[in-house]
Amino acid sequence: MFYDTIYRGRFSIVALSIGLLIFAYFGIRDLTISTDNRIFYGSDNHYFQKYLQFESAFSSNDNILFVVHAPFHFPENDYPKVIQYLTDEVRNLDHVIRVDSLATYPHPSSNKDLVTVESFLEWACPSFSTCRNRQTIKQALSGHHLINRLVSADGQSIGVIATLQIERGAVGQIERLNQHANALVNSLAEKFPDYEVVFTGGVPMMAAFAQATAADLSVLLPVAILIITLVLRSVLGSTSLAGLVLVVALASVIVTLGIAGLSGHVINNATSIVPLIIFILVIASTMHIAVHYAGGLRLENSQTIRNEQAKASFTSNLTPIVVSNATTAISLLSLFFGESPPLRQLGILSAMGVVGGGLFT
């Protein structure tokens, strides 16, 4: 009875499904990727609220730490030039409000009634070719408590810290800053090949979140689709049938992402895996009908036999599919009881996709 109703209205159902996919497309266009690593903490997290209060009283922890390492000790060789060059270049980064390095750290000195304040680098090396005794510099670094802050204990690594003021979760700003930091590192490596420069900090970490999310959506999902397509074609023995299964799974993913976009959801590092979860679960569900249908066809592959086999496959697998989708959706919705908001979103979106996949099936 149910099958006959669907079969009679198949053209209307296909048209409705296409319309739904077109509608979902406009939602997908509104999807954005979040670089904010704080999304994993809920508003009810006591420690997170304390952190926000502390930050509002002082400043945010958006920074980039550049670390210069060399096989010799500061201030030997061109180390003073490298520190000054890196400090000047870091100042030119967008949204920088402060730069901490030996070239900016104040070093006061007095001569009778005259007090002079200069940077530590200027005091240590009045000219880049003439520097004070290394032991004298080391004692001064210890007196200022700069060792293991801006200088390593062995004097072979120097730090330059850029503190930035950026809009929280601004993907464009984060990406541009990360690219500029990369370009700066490459520029310094070309200018001073004897020095190794790396960078880390809050901004590169947020950029890594965005890059991981983009990689999941642009690399992992297409590769998974390709592998599953080959397996489907091999198992079902029919390109058209394998294509139909893929269409059902992709339609479920598109509609789910469309609804997420229309509801204002922002893709993050946790929910970026949702398309793959939905794709795999929907294919596993749809395969009940597809395998039954393919296995029941005879050599006489007429339209009548195909229709009869389709009805038999649908009727015998309707209950298992409904039960499977329902239990899977309930299991995914259990993530809603997690403390982290992205895990809740992961459960809701995945459950939505599984239910949508059951309807498309």
What does it look like?
This protein is an alpha+beta fold and 361 residues long. 61% of the residues lie in helices and 11% in strands. It contains twelve helices and eight strands. The chain has helices spanning 2-8, 10-29, 46-57, 79-91, 120-124, 134-143, 171-191, 202-236, 239-262, 274-296, 303-333, 341-360; strands at 32-33, 63-69, 96-100, 106-111, 114-119, 157-164, 196-200, 266-267. Strand 4 and strand 5 form a beta hairpin. The model has no long low-confidence stretch (mean pLDDT 86).
Q: Count every helix, treating DSSP H or I runs of 4 or more residues as helices.
A: 12
Integer-rounded radius of gyration: 30 Å
- Per the principal axes of the C-alpha atoms, what is the gross shape? elongated
The oligomeric status of these chains comes to single chain
Distance between the termini: 17 Å
Secondary-structure content class: alpha+beta
One letter per element, helices H and strands E, the order comes to: HHEHEHEEEHHEHEHHEHHH
Major sheet:
4 strands, antiparallel
Major β-sheet strand ordering: 3-6-2-7
Instruction: Please report the total strand number as a whole number.
Output: 8
Return the average pLDDT rounded to an integer: 86
Low-confidence stretches: none
- Classify the helix fraction into a percent range: 55-70%
- Beta-strand portion reads 5-15%
